[in-house]
Design brief:
Length: 600
């Protein structure tokens, strides 16, 4: 069974199961021009992809955990927001030791989230609204509850079942010392010792993340075969693509050496090994075998931009997350450099860039951009780091215009369209993230960006679940109703109103569909300072006319002084006023921490 997107699917804009009322005016605009984007085989090059963290999006059955029924109720909201695709974080059977990134069965939906039939329905319903589905595949490790791992433990040392993982005797006479001193992504050792059936201490197994996430041995043919089969399983069910979890980590040096102090390219024993490329070439062949080719999106955390780009060669992944941009501080020089090095690194492999402001692992932009140090690093996360949310919100609004105007695809993490802050005062006993526990409580963990969404002003869980249902799995903070979808839908000045407009304008503006991009160092003949980012999209020739539909200029003021805007510019969008385009007096100056899209 293969769900292909047909033109008929793409234009149909209604569905009986979609519960979110009438489309907004912006949504109508988005809908009007949705057809060509949806029908294009290159949709992924400039798509807007919305990340659903299933557990926290909407709770359809009222048990306190988000589920597929909840997503289905709000597909209309996502259509109106103007997204092209949804990326679902893992929805498979899982003990949820790492929020679902510990998969026990890749072909079944966790009963807390729904059923396989429901997932198929959801994919089809989204497709009817012109929204594609990207699912999350976790190839580096499985859950310790996965059949393969349970069989490996039971079969004992030297068994073929153990060869699918990295079981190893310990060092020292009694085998009580860890095989390597590799450090886990969640801190601590990457090895856990097993217990033999007779109760004696046994071999150790490798887990780059938590002990509940044993690493697979990608040198084993079963592992490769199984994953290609999993891809087909979901592609056959209509998934338009996959997000590849921890994509640069799968392959390990079988000699298990220690990590060198300064590993050169390809020399790290468990990150960015050259053998990875062959795996992704195999996956690309699977993806390309479908009539509408499926898309591979890599979670590739690599500082080396040239090595990063190698994953995006034409026969490997289509795109990969641009974490460099995401981690940069709110600083014009730093962001300009990131944009430029991103575009330079992607050009030789002809892959489009991606623009990411956040995801389910990192501090929400509103909170991060309000900090004195607004860069992001996992190792720097601490309780009690001050932030100025008003500044953060202004900057996050400007960052929305910046990121949506850059050439490539755009990722939007659920709740960022509401301007939600990181929840930094979760009760300690509510926290579930292993990153928190494995740091001995020093790292607050990632739950602060995973708090269930507020849909309505009131109600038991602000509309996350039905009224009278269970409390959400993470408590919502005081005042959550004021930032709810309901509250923001009635407010022209809200972050939601801004995002709807940004996405609708992006869809409607041909200048933003291609890849043409040029920095500007002056505006209307006035030189711009170092604190301003300005660039032109569309026709980037010197003599291109601003009154032409083919040109759009984005200006972002990251300084502390106003920047003059050309008097004759038409303001399409303004991050700092409700709707710049609707005001009779277009602004002549751009205030600090704001951005505009101009036709000039
Ligand atoms: C990725 C996921 C993260 C998860 C980790 C291990 O980085 O985004 O949430 O903890 O992989 O699977």
């Amino acid at each position: 069974m293969a769900h292909e997107l047909t033109e008929e699917d793409a234009v149909s804009n209604d569905h009986p199961r979609v519960a979110d009322g009438e489309p907004t005016p912006d949504a109508t605009l988005a809908q009007a021009v949705r057809e060509p984007a949806a029908a294009s085989p290159d949709w992924w090059r400039s798509a807007v992809i919305y990340q659903v963290y299933v557990r926290s999006f909407a709770d359809g059955n009222g048990d306190g955990t988000g589920d597929l029924a909840g997503v289905r109720q709000h597909l209309g909201y996502l259509r109106d927001l103007g997204v092209d695709a949804i990326w679902f974080t893992p929805w498979y059977v899982s003990p949820l030791a790492d929020g679902g990134y510990d998969v026990a069965d890749y072909r079944a939906i966790d009963p807390q989230f729904g059923t396989l039939a429901e997932a198929e329905q959801l994919i089809a319903e989204a497709r009817d609204l012109g929204i594609r589905t990207i699912i999350d595949v976790v190839p580096n490790h499985v859950s310790s509850e996965h059949e393969w791992f349970k069989a490996a433990l039971a079969a004992g040392p030297g068994s073929p079942e153990r060869e699918r993982f990295w079981f190893h005797p310990g060092k020292g006479e009694d085998g009580s010392e860890i095989p390597t001193r590799w450090v886990s992504e969640f801190q601590g050792s990457t090895w856990t010792r097993t217990t033999n059936p007779d109760g004696t201490p046994g071999e150790w197994y490798l887990h780059v993340f938590a002990p509940e996430q044993p690493d697979l041995n990608w040198n084993h043919p079963d592992v490769r075969r199984e994953h290609e089969d999993i891809l087909r399983f979901w592609f056959d069910r209509g998934a338009a693509g996959i997000r590849i979890d921890s994509a640069a980590q799968l392959v390990k040096d079988p000699a298990l050496p220690e990590v060198p102090a300064h590993p050169g390219p390809g020399e790290h024993p468990h990150v960015d090994r050259d053998e990875l490329h062959d795996i992704y070439r195999g996956w690309r062949a699977v993806a390309d075998s479908y009539e509408e080719p499926r898309v591979l999106v890599g979670e590739v955390w690599l500082a080396d931009r040239a090595r990063f780009a190698q994953y995006l060669r034409p026969d490997e992944m289509h795109t990969a997350f641009n974490f460099d941009f995401m981690a940069r501080p709110w600083d014009a020089k730093a962001l300009r450099e990131s944009v430029q090095t991103t575009l330079d690194a992607h050009a030789p492999v002809a892959a489009p860039a991606t623009w990411v402001l956040s995801n389910h692992d990192v501090t929400r932009p509103v909170t991060r951009y309000g900090r004195e140090d607004s860069s992001f690093a996992f190792t720097a996360k601490r309780f009690g780091t001050p932030t100025d949310l008003e500044t953060g919100r202004r900057r996050a609004r400007a960052a929305a215009l910046l990121s949506a105007a850059l050439p490539g695809s755009l990722y939007l993490y659920q709740g960022d369209e509401l301007g939600l802050p990181e929840v930094e005062d979760l009760p300690l006993d509510a926290i579930q993230d292993p990153m928190h526990f494995r740091s001995d409580g020093v790292d607050p963990g990632r739950d602060g960006c995973r708090v269930p969404l507020p849909w309505t002003r009131g109600g038991t869980s602000h509309g996350f679940g039905p009224d009278g249902g269970a409390q959400p799995w993470l408590p919502q903070p005081h005042g959550w109703g004021e930032v709810s979808v309901e509250a923001q839908s009635d407010d022209e000045t809200s972050v939601l109103a801004l995002y709807r407009r940004v996405l609708a304008t992006r869809r409607a503006e041909p200048a933003l569909h291609g890849e043409a991009f040029r920095w500007l160092d002056s505006l209307g003949g006035v030189a711009l300072g170092d604190d301003v980012l300005a660039f032109r999209r569309g026709d980037t020739r010197d003599d291109a006319h601003g009154d032409d539909d083919g040109v759009l200029t984005c200006v972002v003021n990251l300084g502390t002084e106003d920047v003059p805007l050309p008097a004759d510019a038409e303001v399409l969008l303004h991050s700092g006023t409700p709707h710049g385009a609707d005001t009779s007096e277009p602004p002549t100056r751009l205030a600090p921490d704001t951005a505009v899209w101009l036709r000039a």
